[in-house]
Amino acid sequence: MHFSLALPDGTEAVSTFGGEPEQVILGDGSLTQGLEMALIGLKKGDRQTLELTPMQAFGLWDEDKLQWMPRSDFAPELMLEPGLTIAFETPSGEEVPGTITEVGERRVNVDFNHPLAGVDIVFSVEILEVLDPES
Fold first, then answer.
1. Where in the chain is the domain with CATH 3.10.50.40?
2. Contacts within 8 Å (CB) and 24+ apart, 82-90
């Protein structure tokens, strides 16, 4: 499929239109439940554009996902600045993105909310092919 995620004002966050299509497997956890629900029932050739609420897309922005971390947890050569997104590894080995929001001498504030949390999303999709799960 080709898809795009955009803000209601038209600002595009990501798009595969004009590039390589994305292959997804419903139920594998790679898409939020709301994005999966928007795909159910679509078949080859279908196009759809939906506006999703934060709860249907990437959830509400959660202040509890802001975390102060010691500056020493970061490589000394890393140029930390607000807006920088870094991949962090959870204790279970999963990689999650965190965005630096504030840099102090001894500690760094990291936002672990999804970058699109708390905003309405316009989800556009074009189904190129639907494969049998057995293939």
1. 2-59+116-126
2. 85/115, 86/110, 88/112
Q: How far is CA 34 from the centre of its chain?
A: 13
- 2-59+116-126: CATH topology is Chitinase A; domain 3 (3.10.50)
Bigger pLDDT: 11 vs 90: 11
How does pLDDT run across 70-85, given as a tens digit for each residue?
A: 999 999 999 999 999 9
Give the pLDDT confidence of 31-59 residue by residue, as tens digits.
888 899 999 999 999 999 999 999 999 99
Residue 35: Cβ within 10 Å count: 21
CB 75 within 8 A of CB 57: no
Contact of 90 with 100, CB cutoff 8 Å: no
Q: Could you tell me the sign of the dihedral formed by the alpha carbons of 49, 50, 54, 57, in that order? A: negative
105: phi then psi, degrees, rounded to nearest 5? -65, -35
Domain covering 63-111, topology: Thrombin, subunit H (2.40.10)
